[in-house]
Task: structure prediction
Amino acid sequence: MAIRYADRSVRSVFVYTNEAHPGENYRHHTSMDGKRHNARAFQAEFGLKRDILLDDLAGTAHRAYGTLPNMTWIIGQGGIVHYRAAWTDARDLENALKATMDGMSRRIKDKLVPFYSERWAWRTRDDDAFRGRLANGGPQAVTDFYDKK
Amino acid sequence: MTDQAYNYAVFDLQRDMGKFTEFQNHPLHVGTQAHDFPLENLATGQTTAMKDLWRNGLAVIEFGSYT
Result:
């Protein structure tokens, strides 16, 4: 998606945060070098083409935006928030991106004005894939999530 | 929150769920001005200001980690 919209003045980045589910293979960060190491491993495994930007060790930016483990934001030119989602879902994000771009492009011609709206969005929960991701982090990550519920 | 608390060594489901609830009342809402912080580009090591991401158009910013 980042590539498809890059030529339409949409800059897509990934901000690397704290480890949501630390385990034996990918520990919590105690230094920026440790954070860089995990970020590079993440980039290599998933082949991310977007720029990866590292927050500081204290998570200053992440905390200011809400501290959730996988949220996504759309920010308009000039810095106004257009969309915020507690979870990243490609379909929901693309819907929001298309709607934002459509509204902005027709704003003058069609006399459009924005208004505030809230709703629940829906995503597919893939428990097997999630457990696999946890296992990749190490047995502790699986135990911490499933055995302490 | 301390740096150590932010970079927790053990996941806690109750704490995590609380963050989702808090997010609904987070003051940074649609229509407000986004915060600007310096971030480090993993590839180059150079510092990028978040405001530069939305200087010339829309910015899509995903937060996350390997785990």
Q: What stands out?
A: The beta strands of chain B are 38-41, 47-49, 58-64.
